[in-house]
Amino acid sequence: MGAPQETLSAALERLEALGLRVAAVSRFYHTPCFPAGAGPDYVNAAAALETGLGAEEILAKLHQVEAEFGRERETRWGRRTLDLDLVARGNEVLPNRERYLHWQALSPDLQAQAAPDELILPHPRIQDRGFVLVPLLDVAPGWVHPVLGLSVREMVERLPQAARDEVVPL
């Protein structure tokens, strides 16, 4: 394992080798660890992938690459060597709008304790996370959240300034 930037670059190459075409990659950003105190700060990026695979198949390949890079899923939001998230797939809302809204409305305390047993798309808290949205702005500024009706640019603009300021280009 090298520096985080090297790990991210190698993971993107591995995704390509597994048939997930990397159409665009954001700049790499230094971001604080989430949740605070769970480990060292991170390097985050966003990638737009092109594939004919379904969401579950994409997620399986992301988890495969994480495992190849030493990721062990022991505790929710625990230390990790690599964290590849599927945050959206076009306009899909999975598994359905009702379940999506349930997870989106979950209180912060319950978020730390409960994990869905099914894929939820878009990510239920994408609109709250600068470390996701700021890099996503580089590759998909016009993507519109299928439930909120807001573009990535609009979601970034709604973030508190402090959340935007902690996402620093490398």
From TrEMBL:
The keyword Nucleotide-binding applies. Catalyzes the transfer of pyrophosphate from adenosine triphosphate (ATP) to 6-hydroxymethyl-7,8-dihydropterin, an enzymatic step in folate biosynthesis pathway. It comes from the Bacteria. InterPro entries: Hppk, Hppk_sf. It comes from Roseovarius nubinhibens (strain ATCC BAA-591 / DSM 15170 / ISM). The lineage of its organism: Bacteria, Pseudomonadati, Pseudomonadota, Alphaproteobacteria, Rhodobacterales. Its EC number is 2.7.6.3. Residues 2-141 form the 7,8-dihydro-6-hydroxymethylpterin-pyrophosphokinase domain. SUPFAM superfamilies: 6-hydroxymethyl-7,8-dihydropterin pyrophosphokinase, HPPK (SSF55083). Pfam families: HPPK (PF01288). Keywords: ATP-binding, Folate biosynthesis, Kinase, Nucleotide-binding, Transferase. Belongs to the HPPK family. GO terms for molecular function: 2-amino-4-hydroxy-6-hydroxymethyldihydropteridine diphosphokinase activity; ATP binding; kinase activity. This is 2-amino-4-hydroxy-6-hydroxymethyldihydropteridine pyrophosphokinase. Pathway: Cofactor biosynthesis; tetrahydrofolate biosynthesis; 2-amino-4-hydroxy-6-hydroxymethyl-7,8-dihydropteridine diphosphate from 7,8-dihydroneopterin triphosphate: step 4/4. GO terms for biological process: folic acid biosynthetic process; tetrahydrofolate biosynthetic process. Transmembrane segments: none annotated. Gene3D superfamilies: 7,8-Dihydro-6-hydroxymethylpterin-pyrophosphokinase HPPK.
